[in-house]
Amino acid sequence: VGNFIGVGTIVAAGGQVGVLASNGMQAKSGVGGDAGATGNGGKSGFIDRNGNGGKGGNIYVTTTTGNIDLSPLIVAGGDVNSLYSVRTGNGGRGGTTNGNGGNSGSVGNNGDGGAGGSIFISTFSGKIQPLGFQPTDPLQKPVAFLAPGGPVRGIFAVTGIGGDATLGNGGSSGDIGNNGSGGKGGTVTILSGIGDIKTPKGSIVTTGGDGGVGAGRTGDGGHSTFIGNAGSSGKIGHNGHGGDGSDVLISTLGILIVEGPVVSKGGVGNGNQSITGHGGTALIGRGGSSGRIGYGADGGHGGNITYIGATKITTSETTVASGGAVASGPYQPL
């Protein structure tokens, strides 16, 4: 029933993967062992998927008749900050007399950015407005409501070469999984039955996170130097999409003043610069295939932004709900 006054920033953000570029997943698997006179070469190990950014939480602020004066609210989804930079070793050579070459290890999927959470603010008859900004305080920032989806930096995985064989099949290079997609933006809902609403100058953001840059590379397939089929190069999964922007609803039967920018853009679908290796050669047998590359990324959809003010609506800054672009990096299955 009483007034609600927020003094400090309220944060319910999702956790990040790799807070710094240097402490993300940078695993390596070893080389498969060579066979002796007879037997199969050993396989390089598999590297599992990267982690996902955490989902932002939810913040609910409601009162029946009191005013709501708010400081910044943040429910951002977690970023996948660091490059998923992993490498698998080569497959071992098959026996000098008889045996297949070993396969290189495969790499799992990159992580997705976390989805933004929800901000819900409502009162029946009170006013909703940001806490007063004091320009004389150098540490105080303009109030903002932030619920973006987490972005993904990208993948730079490399798989090794398949092992050669003399009398047997050459080993295949490992596969690389899908790149991570940006997180979906969260929602912001501000409702007053009959009270006036004044949004913060520091912006309302429910954008989708950008998808990661695709830059994986698979190795060559192993050769069969006498009788047997050559190994194939590994395949690479699809690139990560930009996250969708989410909805903003601001509604009152009183006066609505939108002071700051309101942005619900879709995330960027970044370029795919992945390359697959060559198929191996065979003297008597089938040559290996080059790997395939999955589809490129789509930009995220823009969200819906709805203003309802029965008495009057005033806006003074930009309102953006555009879809995400697709970056111009080349899509080159070589």
Describe this structure in words.
The protein has 334 residues and is mostly beta strands. It has no helices and 22 strands. It has strands spanning 4-5, 10-11, 58-63, 68-70, 73-74, 118-123, 128-130, 145-146, 154-155, 165-167, 187-192, 197-198, 204-205, 213-214, 224-227, 248-252, 255-258, 262-263, 282-284, 305-309, 312-315, 319-320. The N and C termini lie far apart (66 Å). The model is unreliable at 330-334 (pLDDT under 50).
- N-to-C order of helices and strands: EEEEEEEEEEEEEEEEEEEEEE
Number of strands: 22
Distance between the termini: 66 Å
> Please, what is the average pLDDT?
88
Biggest β-sheet: strands ordered side by side in the sheet: 2-5-8-13-18-22
The shape, in one word, is elongated
Helicity level: under 10%
Class inferred from helices and paired strands:
mainly beta
- Number of H/I helices: 0
Please state the CA-atom Rg, rounded to the nearest Å: 27 Å
Poorly predicted runs are: 330-334
Strand content range: 15-25%
Query: Major β-sheet, in short?
Result: 6 strands, parallel
Task: Using brief descriptors, characterize the structure shown.
single chain, 334 residues, mainly beta, five-stranded parallel β-sheet, 22 strands, 22% strand, disordered C terminus
